[in-house]
Amino acid sequence: MNISVIIPVYNVEKYVERCILSIMSQTYTESVECIVVNDCTPDNSMKIVEKMVSDYKGQIQFKLLYHEHNRGVAAVRNTGLDAASGDYIIQIDSDDYCEPDMLEKMYAKAIEENADIVVADYWTSGEDSEIYSANIVPDNKMERIKSILQNRLPAYLWRQLMRRSLFEDNLIRSNDGIDFREDVILVCKLYYYAPKVVHLPKAFVHYVQYNTTSYTKVQGRKSLNDLIEGESAILSFFEEKNMGSKLNHELLGMRISDMQLLLFRSKGKLQKQWLARYADITTMKVIKHSVFGKGVGRYWKLAFFFASLRMLWMHNLMRAVWTVLRKKQAQRIIFFSE
User: What are 319-338's pLDDT values in tens digits?
Assistant: First the structure.
């Protein structure tokens, strides 16, 4: 088998038919398998998939796998990987869809370059528009890892065709139970071990932004806990590889960004606990670091500045003012406490 396509399915009945059809319509189907993992979806998603596969007459070999209970996207990815037999792996989210020449072009590039990972561009798809998204992929391993940690090179698994032996030879799997930022943890490890990463400057996947039930859109308390566990996993991995000091700037930036989000989404004792987690991040470090306020308006820069001074009351006062001024936006956000 040349390629294994892994697709997780959970609560995507509005989108899954389009996703599966985009795989069935690929121009390259010889020696391709598509592994669909049902994570106990509560809707009709799998009924749609089962009907499509039953009617399919093409060359792609479909495997439908079923979890006995809902386990999350990280466990789904592991189930798919354990069942895969392709030389290369690509993981497609079931609310996204692909251009018909994706497998043909990405596999050809992998063979031509003897690449361990092929990184493609992608389309960011809104309800009324599409934006072509491209990123520079550095030639140097260290620079690639820095780009991932700084989110200059997004870690999305669905834009990358990866040699399966990278997973098997280095015993790499997703961190079961961490379902938010699980792709960053995985990609950091894979890029550390990958001898050759190449860029294919063509977009294939349409990254759908209007599925309001997707895991990246619904940030509950578990997502924030996953953020913390994922941060710890990344720090531990690079410390184990003696790369912590070389990546100090990037890892600090990641932690500052996490600190901003966690303090914004919490209150009371929980907020104080999360602030204590970052006791080593001083105001001076925040000011000096280039990530401070990146993508954030002046208002929130100032609010986080007060938080870094351990003046949570001022940070929270500014948040309270914002919830009044941006009432509709604030109503969609849950602020957690113990």
Answer: 999 999 999 989 889 999 97
